[in-house]
Design a protein that fits this description.
Strand content: 5-15%
Distance between the termini: 36 Å
Structural class: little secondary structure
Shape: elongated
Mean pLDDT: 82
Number of helices: 0
Length: 85
C-alpha cells in the first residue's frame, strides 16, 4: 500500500474479507468496509514493525522525531547531524 501523498510504501496487511491491502493499524477496510480484527500484542507484526531499541532520535534538541532509513527526521525533515552536534 502506498501513501497517497508521498508515494512511500506503507506497512499493510490484507483484509480478511476482500484480500485488499489496508494500513497495518487500520480498524476497517478501505475497500469493502469490513471490520479488521485488532492483532494481539503477542502476534508478530512482520518485518515492518518498529524496533524502538534501535531508533535514532532527531539531533535537533527541540524535535521529537526519529531518523528514518534515508537519514532524515520523520518529523521536521532535517538531516541527522550525529551525536553531540
Amino acid at each position: 500500500m502506498k501513501c497517497p501523498h508521498c508515494k512511500a510504501e506503507l506497512p499493510s496487511r490484507e483484509c480478511p474479507k476482500c484480500n485488499e491491502k489496508v494500513p497495518l493499524e487500520g480498524r476497517f477496510c478501505l475497500h469493502c468496509g469490513a471490520e479488521i480484527p485488532v492483532p494481539k500484542a503477542t502476534e508478530k507484526r512482520g518485518d515492518d514493525a518498529i524496533d524502538f531499541s534501535k531508533r535514532t532520535l532527531c539531533s535537533d534538541g527541540t524535535c521529537i522525531g526519529v531518523i528514518n532509513k534515508r537519514g532524515i527526521c520523520n518529523e521536521c525533515g532535517k538531516p541527522y547531524k550525529g551525536e553531540g552536534e
